[in-house]
Amino acid sequence: KRNVLIIGAGGVAQVVAHKAAQNNDVLGDIHIASRTAAKCEQIIASVREKGSLKVDGVLKAHALDARDSANVVALIRETGAEIVINVAQAFVNMPILDACIEAGVAYMDTAIHEDPAKICEIPPWYGNYEWKRREAAAKAGVTAILGVGFDPGVVNAYAKLAIDDYVAEPESIDIIDINAGSHGRWFSTNFDPEINFREFTGTVYSWQNQQWQENKMFEVGQTWDMPVVGDQKAYLTGHDEVHSLSANYPKADVRFWMGFGDHYINVFTVLKNLGLLSEKPVKTAEGLEVIPLKVVKAVLPDPASLAPDYTGKTCIATLVKGKDKDGNPAEVMIYNVADHKEAYLEVGSQGISYTAGVPPVAAAMLVADGTWDVGAMKNVEELDPKPFLNLLNKIGLPTSIRDAGGERLLTF
Ligand code: NDP
To answer: CA–CA separation, 194 vs 187, rounded Å?
Structure first.
Protein backbone atom coordinates (compact mmCIF):
# COMPACT_ATOMS: atom_id res chain seq x y z
CA LYS A 1 0.00 0.00 0.00
CA ARG A 2 1.19 3.54 -0.73
CA ASN A 3 -0.54 6.57 0.72
CA VAL A 4 -1.66 9.18 -1.79
CA LEU A 5 -1.78 12.96 -1.72
CA ILE A 6 -4.05 14.44 -4.37
CA ILE A 7 -3.30 18.13 -5.02
CA GLY A 8 -6.12 20.17 -6.57
CA ALA A 9 -9.84 19.94 -5.96
CA GLY A 10 -11.37 20.69 -9.37
CA GLY A 11 -13.27 18.55 -11.84
CA VAL A 12 -10.38 16.16 -12.49
CA ALA A 13 -9.54 15.81 -8.78
CA GLN A 14 -13.15 14.79 -8.08
CA VAL A 15 -12.66 11.78 -10.39
CA VAL A 16 -9.17 11.03 -9.03
CA ALA A 17 -10.54 10.99 -5.48
CA HIS A 18 -13.40 8.62 -6.33
CA LYS A 19 -11.15 6.25 -8.26
CA ALA A 20 -8.44 6.32 -5.59
CA ALA A 21 -11.11 5.53 -2.99
CA GLN A 22 -12.44 2.65 -5.10
CA ASN A 23 -8.90 1.26 -5.07
CA ASN A 24 -7.74 2.18 -1.55
CA ASP A 25 -6.87 -1.47 -0.87
CA VAL A 26 -3.86 -0.83 -3.18
CA LEU A 27 -3.36 2.87 -2.44
CA GLY A 28 -3.86 3.28 1.33
CA ASP A 29 -4.61 6.65 2.96
CA ILE A 30 -6.05 9.32 0.68
CA HIS A 31 -5.35 13.00 1.33
CA ILE A 32 -6.76 15.83 -0.79
CA ALA A 33 -5.22 19.29 -0.68
CA SER A 34 -6.08 22.51 -2.45
CA ARG A 35 -5.94 26.24 -1.90
CA THR A 36 -9.57 26.15 -0.75
CA ALA A 37 -9.98 23.31 1.78
CA ALA A 38 -13.79 23.52 1.47
CA LYS A 39 -13.52 22.21 -2.10
CA CYS A 40 -11.63 19.15 -0.80
CA GLU A 41 -14.31 18.65 1.86
CA GLN A 42 -16.97 18.70 -0.87
CA ILE A 43 -15.13 16.00 -2.81
CA ILE A 44 -14.81 13.89 0.32
CA ALA A 45 -18.55 14.27 0.98
CA SER A 46 -19.27 13.05 -2.55
CA VAL A 47 -16.91 10.07 -2.15
CA ARG A 48 -18.67 9.14 1.10
CA GLU A 49 -22.15 9.69 -0.38
CA LYS A 50 -21.42 7.31 -3.26
CA GLY A 51 -19.76 4.81 -0.91
CA SER A 52 -16.64 4.81 -3.10
CA LEU A 53 -14.14 3.70 -0.41
CA LYS A 54 -13.35 0.03 -1.10
CA VAL A 55 -12.01 -0.66 2.37
CA ASP A 56 -12.20 1.42 5.54
CA GLY A 57 -9.45 4.01 5.48
CA VAL A 58 -8.26 7.58 5.87
CA LEU A 59 -9.81 10.25 3.64
CA LYS A 60 -8.75 13.73 4.69
CA ALA A 61 -8.88 17.33 3.40
CA HIS A 62 -6.06 19.89 3.72
CA ALA A 63 -5.56 23.54 2.80
CA LEU A 64 -2.40 24.06 0.74
CA ASP A 65 -0.85 26.85 -1.27
CA ALA A 66 1.31 24.83 -3.65
CA ARG A 67 3.09 27.87 -5.12
CA ASP A 68 5.60 27.44 -2.30
CA SER A 69 7.43 24.14 -2.58
CA ALA A 70 8.19 24.13 1.18
CA ASN A 71 4.44 23.97 1.94
CA VAL A 72 4.14 20.89 -0.27
CA VAL A 73 7.15 19.17 1.33
CA ALA A 74 5.67 19.83 4.79
CA LEU A 75 2.31 18.32 3.80
CA ILE A 76 3.94 15.26 2.20
CA ARG A 77 5.78 14.66 5.48
CA GLU A 78 2.71 15.33 7.63
CA THR A 79 0.51 12.91 5.65
CA GLY A 80 3.15 10.23 5.02
CA ALA A 81 2.18 10.31 1.34
CA GLU A 82 4.39 8.25 -0.98
CA ILE A 83 2.63 9.19 -4.19
CA VAL A 84 1.53 12.70 -5.18
CA ILE A 85 -1.14 12.98 -7.87
CA ASN A 86 -0.97 16.59 -9.05
CA VAL A 87 -4.22 17.70 -10.64
CA ALA A 88 -4.05 21.34 -9.57
CA GLN A 89 -3.84 24.20 -12.06
CA ALA A 90 -0.76 23.66 -14.20
CA PHE A 91 0.78 26.95 -12.94
CA VAL A 92 1.96 25.12 -9.79
CA ASN A 93 3.38 21.95 -11.37
CA MET A 94 7.05 22.80 -10.86
CA PRO A 95 6.92 23.68 -7.15
CA ILE A 96 5.03 20.40 -6.62
CA LEU A 97 7.54 18.37 -8.66
CA ASP A 98 10.43 20.03 -6.80
CA ALA A 99 8.78 19.12 -3.49
CA CYS A 100 8.42 15.47 -4.53
CA ILE A 101 12.07 15.30 -5.55
CA GLU A 102 13.09 16.85 -2.22
CA ALA A 103 10.82 14.57 -0.18
CA GLY A 104 11.73 11.49 -2.26
CA VAL A 105 8.16 10.53 -3.23
CA ALA A 106 6.56 9.61 -6.57
CA TYR A 107 5.02 12.40 -8.68
CA MET A 108 2.51 12.43 -11.49
CA ASP A 109 0.62 15.14 -13.33
CA THR A 110 -1.68 15.49 -16.32
CA ALA A 111 -0.47 18.67 -18.03
CA ILE A 112 2.74 20.58 -18.74
CA HIS A 113 3.79 23.37 -16.40
CA GLU A 114 2.64 26.79 -17.54
CA ASP A 115 3.95 30.22 -16.74
CA PRO A 116 0.87 32.42 -16.38
CA ALA A 117 2.79 35.35 -17.88
CA LYS A 118 3.43 33.52 -21.16
CA ILE A 119 0.77 32.90 -23.81
CA CYS A 120 2.72 30.07 -25.42
CA GLU A 121 5.97 28.27 -24.65
CA ILE A 122 8.52 27.37 -27.28
CA PRO A 123 8.93 23.69 -28.25
CA PRO A 124 9.65 21.18 -26.97
CA TRP A 125 7.39 22.25 -24.12
CA TYR A 126 8.64 19.66 -21.63
CA GLY A 127 12.16 20.96 -22.25
CA ASN A 128 11.35 24.34 -20.68
CA TYR A 129 10.63 23.07 -17.17
CA GLU A 130 10.05 19.34 -16.61
CA TRP A 131 13.00 17.73 -18.43
CA LYS A 132 15.38 20.21 -16.75
CA ARG A 133 14.64 18.30 -13.54
CA ARG A 134 15.21 14.85 -15.07
CA GLU A 135 18.67 14.43 -13.58
CA ALA A 136 17.56 15.57 -10.14
CA ALA A 137 14.68 13.06 -10.20
CA ALA A 138 17.00 10.22 -11.26
CA LYS A 139 19.54 11.19 -8.60
CA ALA A 140 16.85 11.09 -5.92
CA GLY A 141 15.45 7.82 -7.37
CA VAL A 142 12.08 9.54 -7.72
CA THR A 143 9.49 8.19 -10.15
CA ALA A 144 7.96 11.17 -11.97
CA ILE A 145 5.36 10.36 -14.61
CA LEU A 146 4.59 13.37 -16.77
CA GLY A 147 1.26 13.99 -18.44
CA VAL A 148 -0.62 10.88 -17.38
CA GLY A 149 -4.18 12.06 -18.02
CA PHE A 150 -6.00 10.97 -21.16
CA ASP A 151 -4.43 13.36 -23.64
CA PRO A 152 -1.60 13.66 -22.83
CA GLY A 153 -1.37 10.27 -21.15
CA VAL A 154 -3.38 7.32 -22.42
CA VAL A 155 -2.95 8.48 -26.03
CA ASN A 156 0.85 8.28 -25.54
CA ALA A 157 0.43 4.68 -24.32
CA TYR A 158 -1.73 4.01 -27.40
CA ALA A 159 1.07 5.33 -29.64
CA LYS A 160 3.66 3.15 -27.90
CA LEU A 161 1.42 0.07 -28.17
CA ALA A 162 0.70 0.75 -31.85
CA ILE A 163 4.43 1.03 -32.60
CA ASP A 164 5.43 -1.98 -30.45
CA ASP A 165 2.83 -4.35 -31.90
CA TYR A 166 1.54 -3.11 -35.25
CA VAL A 167 3.44 -0.28 -36.97
CA ALA A 168 7.14 -0.85 -36.33
CA GLU A 169 8.15 2.10 -38.52
CA PRO A 170 5.71 4.92 -37.78
CA GLU A 171 5.41 7.66 -40.41
CA SER A 172 2.61 9.60 -38.73
CA ILE A 173 1.03 9.73 -35.30
CA ASP A 174 -2.27 11.64 -35.22
CA ILE A 175 -4.13 12.12 -31.95
CA ILE A 176 -7.78 12.94 -32.42
CA ASP A 177 -9.89 14.18 -29.52
CA ILE A 178 -13.63 14.31 -30.15
CA ASN A 179 -16.25 15.34 -27.62
CA ALA A 180 -19.49 14.39 -29.33
CA GLY A 181 -21.45 15.17 -26.16
CA SER A 182 -23.77 18.06 -25.41
CA HIS A 183 -23.98 20.17 -22.24
CA GLY A 184 -27.16 21.92 -23.33
CA ARG A 185 -25.87 25.47 -22.61
CA TRP A 186 -25.64 28.23 -25.21
CA PHE A 187 -21.89 28.41 -24.69
CA SER A 188 -19.50 26.97 -22.15
CA THR A 189 -15.98 25.69 -21.87
CA ASN A 190 -15.58 22.21 -20.40
CA PHE A 191 -12.74 23.30 -18.11
CA ASP A 192 -11.58 26.48 -16.46
CA PRO A 193 -12.02 29.05 -19.29
CA GLU A 194 -8.68 30.68 -18.43
CA ILE A 195 -6.84 27.43 -19.11
CA ASN A 196 -9.13 26.30 -21.91
CA PHE A 197 -8.81 29.47 -23.99
CA ARG A 198 -5.06 29.64 -23.44
CA GLU A 199 -4.81 26.35 -25.33
CA PHE A 200 -6.28 28.02 -28.40
CA THR A 201 -4.74 31.49 -28.36
CA GLY A 202 -1.09 30.48 -28.73
CA THR A 203 0.80 29.14 -31.75
CA VAL A 204 -0.28 25.69 -32.90
CA TYR A 205 2.88 23.57 -33.05
CA SER A 206 2.98 20.28 -34.91
CA TRP A 207 5.94 18.07 -35.82
CA GLN A 208 6.03 17.48 -39.57
CA ASN A 209 8.89 16.50 -41.90
CA GLN A 210 11.17 16.35 -38.85
CA GLN A 211 10.68 19.97 -37.94
CA TRP A 212 8.29 22.19 -36.02
CA GLN A 213 5.50 23.64 -38.09
CA GLU A 214 3.61 26.70 -36.87
CA ASN A 215 -0.05 27.39 -37.55
CA LYS A 216 -2.85 29.44 -36.06
CA MET A 217 -5.77 27.85 -34.25
CA PHE A 218 -8.61 26.78 -36.57
CA GLU A 219 -6.36 27.30 -39.61
CA VAL A 220 -6.08 23.59 -40.50
CA GLY A 221 -9.18 21.39 -40.21
CA GLN A 222 -10.02 17.90 -41.35
CA THR A 223 -13.02 15.57 -41.12
CA TRP A 224 -12.17 12.27 -39.44
CA ASP A 225 -14.14 9.05 -39.67
CA MET A 226 -14.28 8.03 -36.01
CA PRO A 227 -15.56 4.85 -34.37
CA VAL A 228 -18.97 5.17 -32.65
CA VAL A 229 -19.26 8.99 -33.04
CA GLY A 230 -18.96 9.00 -36.87
CA ASP A 231 -17.60 11.79 -39.09
CA GLN A 232 -16.21 14.65 -37.00
CA LYS A 233 -14.41 17.86 -37.93
CA ALA A 234 -11.26 18.44 -35.91
CA TYR A 235 -8.61 21.17 -36.05
CA LEU A 236 -4.85 21.08 -35.69
CA THR A 237 -4.22 22.17 -32.08
CA GLY A 238 -1.11 22.64 -29.95
CA HIS A 239 -0.90 19.97 -27.26
CA ASP A 240 1.59 18.54 -24.76
CA GLU A 241 1.95 15.04 -26.18
CA VAL A 242 3.23 16.32 -29.54
CA HIS A 243 6.31 17.57 -27.67
CA SER A 244 7.30 14.24 -26.11
CA LEU A 245 6.18 11.91 -28.91
CA SER A 246 8.20 13.94 -31.42
CA ALA A 247 11.28 13.58 -29.22
CA ASN A 248 10.75 9.82 -28.91
CA TYR A 249 9.71 9.20 -32.54
CA PRO A 250 11.44 12.01 -34.44
CA LYS A 251 11.02 10.43 -37.87
CA ALA A 252 7.22 10.41 -37.65
CA ASP A 253 4.89 13.37 -38.17
CA VAL A 254 3.13 14.05 -34.86
CA ARG A 255 -0.09 16.07 -34.82
CA PHE A 256 -2.92 16.72 -32.39
CA TRP A 257 -6.49 17.38 -33.58
CA MET A 258 -9.34 18.62 -31.45
CA GLY A 259 -12.99 18.53 -32.51
CA PHE A 260 -14.98 21.79 -32.49
CA GLY A 261 -18.45 22.71 -33.70
CA ASP A 262 -18.96 25.84 -35.82
CA HIS A 263 -20.82 27.53 -32.94
CA TYR A 264 -17.85 27.18 -30.57
CA ILE A 265 -15.50 28.56 -33.21
CA ASN A 266 -17.77 31.54 -33.93
CA VAL A 267 -18.11 32.50 -30.26
CA PHE A 268 -14.41 32.00 -29.59
CA THR A 269 -13.47 34.10 -32.64
CA VAL A 270 -15.74 36.98 -31.60
CA LEU A 271 -14.43 36.95 -28.03
CA LYS A 272 -10.83 36.83 -29.22
CA ASN A 273 -11.19 39.51 -31.91
CA LEU A 274 -12.93 41.86 -29.46
CA GLY A 275 -10.01 41.44 -27.05
CA LEU A 276 -12.14 39.72 -24.44
CA LEU A 277 -9.74 36.79 -24.06
CA SER A 278 -6.87 39.10 -23.10
CA GLU A 279 -5.11 38.68 -19.78
CA LYS A 280 -3.91 42.32 -19.90
CA PRO A 281 -5.89 44.67 -17.63
CA VAL A 282 -8.02 47.40 -19.22
CA LYS A 283 -9.53 50.49 -17.60
CA THR A 284 -13.23 51.27 -17.96
CA ALA A 285 -14.47 54.86 -18.37
CA GLU A 286 -15.35 54.74 -14.66
CA GLY A 287 -11.72 54.04 -13.79
CA LEU A 288 -12.32 50.40 -12.93
CA GLU A 289 -9.43 48.12 -13.88
CA VAL A 290 -10.51 44.71 -15.15
CA ILE A 291 -8.90 41.72 -16.86
CA PRO A 292 -11.19 40.88 -19.81
CA LEU A 293 -10.58 37.11 -19.60
CA LYS A 294 -11.55 37.13 -15.89
CA VAL A 295 -14.81 38.90 -16.77
CA VAL A 296 -15.58 36.34 -19.47
CA LYS A 297 -14.87 33.57 -16.96
CA ALA A 298 -17.18 35.19 -14.42
CA VAL A 299 -20.14 35.30 -16.83
CA LEU A 300 -19.70 31.82 -18.36
CA PRO A 301 -21.21 28.72 -16.68
CA ASP A 302 -19.06 27.09 -14.02
CA PRO A 303 -17.73 24.03 -15.91
CA ALA A 304 -18.43 21.84 -12.85
CA SER A 305 -22.14 22.72 -13.12
CA LEU A 306 -22.38 21.09 -16.58
CA ALA A 307 -22.02 17.51 -15.37
CA PRO A 308 -25.63 16.65 -14.39
CA ASP A 309 -27.03 17.57 -17.85
CA TYR A 310 -24.16 16.33 -20.02
CA THR A 311 -25.15 13.61 -22.50
CA GLY A 312 -23.38 11.83 -25.36
CA LYS A 313 -19.95 10.34 -25.84
CA THR A 314 -16.29 11.21 -26.20
CA CYS A 315 -13.94 9.36 -28.54
CA ILE A 316 -10.22 9.94 -28.18
CA ALA A 317 -7.91 8.08 -30.53
CA THR A 318 -4.33 7.65 -31.65
CA LEU A 319 -3.99 6.85 -35.35
CA VAL A 320 -0.58 5.51 -36.37
CA LYS A 321 0.38 4.94 -39.99
CA GLY A 322 3.62 3.58 -41.41
CA LYS A 323 5.14 0.19 -42.11
CA ASP A 324 4.98 -3.05 -40.15
CA LYS A 325 8.09 -5.06 -39.23
CA ASP A 326 8.12 -6.68 -42.69
CA GLY A 327 8.04 -3.31 -44.44
CA ASN A 328 4.39 -3.54 -45.55
CA PRO A 329 2.06 -0.53 -45.16
CA ALA A 330 0.29 -0.65 -41.80
CA GLU A 331 -2.31 1.49 -40.02
CA VAL A 332 -4.07 1.18 -36.66
CA MET A 333 -6.36 3.38 -34.63
CA ILE A 334 -6.39 2.71 -30.88
CA TYR A 335 -9.14 4.50 -28.99
CA ASN A 336 -11.51 4.82 -26.07
CA VAL A 337 -15.16 5.79 -26.07
CA ALA A 338 -16.53 7.25 -22.81
CA ASP A 339 -20.06 8.30 -21.90
CA HIS A 340 -20.81 11.57 -20.06
CA LYS A 341 -23.93 10.30 -18.26
CA GLU A 342 -22.26 7.08 -17.08
CA ALA A 343 -19.36 9.13 -15.68
CA TYR A 344 -21.79 11.38 -13.83
CA LEU A 345 -23.69 8.49 -12.32
CA GLU A 346 -20.47 6.82 -11.16
CA VAL A 347 -18.42 9.73 -9.83
CA GLY A 348 -20.51 12.90 -10.25
CA SER A 349 -18.41 14.39 -13.09
CA GLN A 350 -18.71 14.86 -16.86
CA GLY A 351 -16.94 12.52 -19.26
CA ILE A 352 -13.95 14.76 -20.00
CA SER A 353 -12.99 15.03 -16.34
CA TYR A 354 -13.55 11.27 -16.10
CA THR A 355 -11.18 10.43 -18.96
CA ALA A 356 -8.55 12.78 -17.45
CA GLY A 357 -8.91 11.60 -13.84
CA VAL A 358 -8.95 7.80 -14.12
CA PRO A 359 -5.49 7.41 -15.78
CA PRO A 360 -3.38 9.04 -13.03
CA VAL A 361 -5.02 6.69 -10.51
CA ALA A 362 -4.11 3.70 -12.70
CA ALA A 363 -0.55 5.07 -12.85
CA ALA A 364 -0.48 5.48 -9.06
CA MET A 365 -1.62 1.86 -8.65
CA LEU A 366 1.17 0.70 -10.96
CA VAL A 367 3.69 2.72 -8.96
CA ALA A 368 2.27 1.26 -5.73
CA ASP A 369 2.67 -2.34 -6.94
CA GLY A 370 6.12 -1.62 -8.41
CA THR A 371 5.25 -2.15 -12.11
CA TRP A 372 5.83 1.50 -13.02
CA ASP A 373 8.00 2.49 -10.04
CA VAL A 374 11.01 3.15 -12.25
CA GLY A 375 12.82 5.71 -10.06
CA ALA A 376 13.18 8.20 -12.93
CA MET A 377 11.27 10.85 -14.89
CA LYS A 378 9.24 9.42 -17.75
CA ASN A 379 6.68 10.48 -20.32
CA VAL A 380 3.98 7.84 -20.70
CA GLU A 381 5.24 6.41 -24.02
CA GLU A 382 8.51 5.55 -22.26
CA LEU A 383 6.73 3.05 -19.97
CA ASP A 384 5.23 -0.39 -20.71
CA PRO A 385 1.70 0.38 -21.97
CA LYS A 386 0.15 -3.06 -21.48
CA PRO A 387 -0.22 -3.19 -17.68
CA PHE A 388 -1.54 0.39 -17.79
CA LEU A 389 -4.13 -0.27 -20.49
CA ASN A 390 -5.16 -3.56 -18.86
CA LEU A 391 -5.75 -1.79 -15.57
CA LEU A 392 -7.70 0.98 -17.34
CA ASN A 393 -9.87 -1.72 -18.94
CA LYS A 394 -10.77 -2.86 -15.43
CA ILE A 395 -11.30 0.55 -13.81
CA GLY A 396 -13.47 2.31 -16.37
CA LEU A 397 -11.61 3.24 -19.58
CA PRO A 398 -11.57 0.27 -21.98
CA THR A 399 -9.26 0.34 -25.00
CA SER A 400 -10.43 -0.58 -28.49
CA ILE A 401 -8.60 -1.00 -31.76
CA ARG A 402 -9.64 -0.45 -35.38
CA ASP A 403 -7.48 -2.07 -38.05
CA ALA A 404 -7.94 -4.20 -41.16
CA GLY A 405 -9.65 -6.78 -38.91
CA GLY A 406 -12.40 -4.30 -37.87
CA GLU A 407 -13.15 -2.78 -34.45
CA ARG A 408 -12.74 -4.71 -31.19
CA LEU A 409 -11.82 -4.38 -27.52
CA LEU A 410 -8.15 -4.94 -26.68
CA THR A 411 -7.00 -6.93 -23.66
CA PHE A 412 -3.59 -8.36 -22.90
P1 NDP B 1 -9.76 23.12 -11.98
O2 NDP B 1 -9.47 24.48 -12.45
O3 NDP B 1 -11.18 22.66 -11.88
O4 NDP B 1 -9.07 22.89 -10.56
C5 NDP B 1 -7.78 23.28 -10.31
C6 NDP B 1 -7.50 23.13 -8.83
O7 NDP B 1 -6.19 23.60 -8.58
C8 NDP B 1 -8.44 23.91 -7.92
O9 NDP B 1 -8.89 23.09 -6.88
C10 NDP B 1 -7.53 25.01 -7.39
O11 NDP B 1 -7.85 25.41 -6.08
C12 NDP B 1 -6.20 24.30 -7.37
N13 NDP B 1 -5.10 25.23 -7.26
C14 NDP B 1 -4.80 26.28 -8.08
N15 NDP B 1 -3.73 26.95 -7.61
C16 NDP B 1 -3.35 26.31 -6.48
C17 NDP B 1 -2.32 26.53 -5.53
N18 NDP B 1 -1.48 27.56 -5.65
N19 NDP B 1 -2.22 25.67 -4.50
C20 NDP B 1 -3.08 24.64 -4.35
N21 NDP B 1 -4.09 24.40 -5.20
C22 NDP B 1 -4.22 25.22 -6.26
O23 NDP B 1 -8.93 22.13 -12.93
P24 NDP B 1 -9.34 20.74 -13.58
O25 NDP B 1 -9.71 19.80 -12.50
O26 NDP B 1 -10.24 20.96 -14.70
O27 NDP B 1 -7.92 20.31 -14.20
C28 NDP B 1 -6.83 19.94 -13.38
C29 NDP B 1 -5.58 19.70 -14.22
O30 NDP B 1 -5.82 18.65 -15.14
C31 NDP B 1 -5.14 20.89 -15.06
O32 NDP B 1 -3.74 20.98 -15.01
C33 NDP B 1 -5.58 20.53 -16.45
O34 NDP B 1 -4.77 21.14 -17.43
C35 NDP B 1 -5.39 19.03 -16.44
N36 NDP B 1 -6.19 18.30 -17.44
C37 NDP B 1 -5.59 17.27 -18.11
C38 NDP B 1 -6.29 16.53 -19.04
C39 NDP B 1 -5.66 15.37 -19.71
O40 NDP B 1 -6.38 14.54 -20.30
N41 NDP B 1 -4.36 15.20 -19.69
C42 NDP B 1 -7.68 16.85 -19.37
C43 NDP B 1 -8.23 17.88 -18.55
C44 NDP B 1 -7.51 18.59 -17.63
P45 NDP B 1 -8.69 26.77 -5.80
O46 NDP B 1 -9.87 26.75 -6.71
O47 NDP B 1 -9.03 26.66 -4.37
O48 NDP B 1 -7.78 27.91 -6.12
So the answer is: 15
